[in-house]
Amino acid sequence: MNAGGGAANRALQDEVLALAANAGFALAGIADARPSDHAEHVRAWIADGRHGSMDWLANDLEIRLDPRRMLRGARSVLCVADRYAGPRPDRRSDAATEWPPRGRVARYARGDDYHIVLRKRLRRLAAMLRERFPDERFRIACDLLPVLERELAARAGIGKVGKHTIVLRPGEGSYLLLGEVLMTLDIAEDSRARAKETLDPCGTCTRCIDACPTNAISPFSVDARRCIAYTSIEHRGTIPDDIADATGDWIFGCDICQEVCPHNQPSRRSKRLPVLEVYRERRSELDLLAILGWTEADRQAMFVKSALRRAFLPMWKRNALIALGNALAARRDPAIERRIAEIAADPNEDDVVRSTAADVLRRLARSP
Ligand code: SF4
Ligand code: SF4
Fold this sequence. Notes:
This protein is α+β, with helices and mostly antiparallel strands. Helix content is about 40%, strand content about 10%. The strands form 4 sheets. It has a 4-stranded antiparallel β-sheet with strand order 1-2-7-4, with helices on both faces. It has a 3-stranded mixed β-sheet with strand order 10-3-11. The protein has a two-stranded antiparallel ribbon with strand order 5-6. Strand 8 (about 215-220) and strand 9 form a beta hairpin. The radius of gyration is 22 Å and the shape is elongated.
């Protein structure tokens, strides 16, 4: 359908956006389905190896750069977002003194698995759209299809992409989960002018770059190989010493670049923004010593309906060992160090786990 532009187009946009609101999404906008405006930047990022071992990003690259490759005849993309956290500061006041130490989980993974939550409502939204526009075709994304969701969200006016490469809403923050419905429905306006105008929500700010413990961020680019969100969740091998040392107590993801962002600081407006009950925190920290004793059955039982399932058992043990090592560097504990030595020598442990345990002990031996 071509809406013919003007008032008719706007009426259809309003109708589609009302369906998204009806499906419970906090935010929605419509992007046109043209190819990426940043193709050269994305190609250079991949060519430089900054995607680490996320081979699917390289394999799907050309498809990812053009949403029309995922839905023949796509004309527009309905972009939606849920807020998964408010602007309040993290951590209990006794976090620095608690013992035995615990490991911290990134906020997006503390409640129900967003994939399940978002996809369920995206499917319902697509069904409503099919019923209303029976001659059109619709296909949902949300990590199911290779699309550049941050660029599309910015194009749709959901927010702006910050120097840390995450979509943020000025004054409201960046704790947003994104989803998309590709549509043959031809109702998007050309958002090229908006893309230019929204390119930089940061001005002279460099807080995220300065705060990133692993120096992963350069303006509008993150080297995944140095980012804790990648090393702790996507990367399956051992982790280099400098990254491990800088990982602190994070055991699944990292929120530092978002926590320091001025747009995520509490304000009268941001404190009033609602968060869906399903994203309320169920698990923000985990017992590091307990993780070292987990079996695969324990891991599965712990993470029913949780995004924490994404990391495999050896990755959880590797991450727990690194966080323990970082805690032990500040406060030695012979009993915990003996436990790590047992793991380093245990032939039943995964190679990555044994090797990480040995690395932790080696670094501890060097520390004062
Ligand atoms: S998530 Fe953490 S490690 Fe990754 S870029 Fe942000 S601050 Fe750096
Ligand atoms: S911390 Fe500053 S530079 Fe980084 S995304 Fe937020 S506003 Fe931009």
